User: Fold this.
Amino acid sequence: MYFQIYVGDRIVFVMGDAKRPGSIRIKKSIDNEVFGDMVILTQNSADCARIFGVVRNDFPRTSSSVFCRAYGNRAASGREEVS
Assistant:
């Protein structure tokens, strides 16, 4: 079986009329059977550990590390882009 591996540079979510969710969790899989966390965005940095059990990490050091950070200080609004 042949697998193609892609490395993402940026993921952008456009929320449209809806406010952004409390958190966004993106998972990845190499074999399409076992999935692991790749990116987690939360309302505040403490949620990385409190909800997801992951240490806040603004820049993943390896391809297997999880990127977890807060959205920022601004309030959620409609027509917003999150990346």
Remarks:
- Residues 13-82 form one domain.
- The longest helix spans residues 46-52.
- Helices lie at 46-52.
